[in-house]
Amino acid sequence: MAAGLDYIPPCPPLYTQNRSIQQEQAQQQATRRTETDDTTMAAPQPQKTASTLRLAIARGAHQLDIIGYSTWRMLGAHNTVRSRSFDAGGFAWALVCYFVSNTTTTRGVTLASIALALELLRNETDEAVVATASIRIDEPTGAGRWPAAEWHSAEPHVFPAWSMSAVAWELAVPDAFVQHKKRYVMDDCLTVHCSVEVLKEESADGATRKYMVGMPPPPSLSHDIHRLRQDMWWPDVTFTVDDAKVQAHKLVLAARSRVFDAQFFYGDRVNCKKPSHLKLKHPIATTFLARPKNPPLYL
């Protein structure tokens, strides 16, 4: 080494530096590509399934004849007349007539009033029983002199699941019978008709099936009206603005302006016979000819 000269370390070959830079750039691009693939990978679409449930109604009816009706009333409260069990919807039911205290007296004898209840004798399932009921007391002669006294439950009643003993639902006595008892009792016999409807949900096909969901398109009213103006589909009015003619549609103008609504359709919205050519003057001309990038709905 010559005296007085500083030592300069040898520089690595240029091709070695270029290869290192290329390798680093390739690694960065691979990393970015992996991150992009992870972020842009489409999320798996959830599988859409459908099933059909059908509401089935099982009906049951029973007729209860109370013979010696006046005797039951004279015996007073706490007397009960229970029908035989009948079937509705696969369950056993019974109509119960019991008598409650009343201040009504006939020939010095206090007579009790009748009340009604529907009993679900047993429910050995893990689902509640939903049912509606109706009561009908016909005019006994059958001549149709008086209308039948009827009552229908306004809403269904829910009986609990796993009821091992009878569960009662108090029903209403028809108003017509309460007000005119003598019309519906003949030969000391009262006949009560009870109908029960059990509501059940049943699977229509018993299996789950796939289905496609149709999505409505996004709203595009403004673009459609803008296209209506650009393509000039059936214009029905022409404006003269600074010696330029502009065609438009009366319906769209009337929808956006009360002034145009009155000018085009006042007094006759079906058969419009107003002028179809208008001339605009003054500073409104420049405003009318302005065409913004996203045009409003006035043409």
UniProtKB/TrEMBL annotation:
PROSITE patterns: BTB
Pfam families in alphabetical order: BTB
PANTHER family, per the entry: BTB DOMAIN-CONTAINING PROTEIN (PTHR26379:SF494), BTB/POZ AND MATH DOMAIN-CONTAINING PROTEIN 1 (PTHR26379)
Pathway connected to this protein: Protein modification; protein ubiquitination
Organism expressing this protein natively: Aegilops tauschii (Tausch's goatgrass)
Lineage, highest ranks first: Eukaryota, Viridiplantae, Streptophyta, Embryophyta, Tracheophyta
Protein name, per record: Uncharacterized protein
Domain of life: Eukaryota
Listed InterPro entries: BPM1-6, BTB/POZ_dom, SKP1/BTB/POZ_sf, TRAF-like
Any one GO BP annotation for this protein: protein ubiquitination
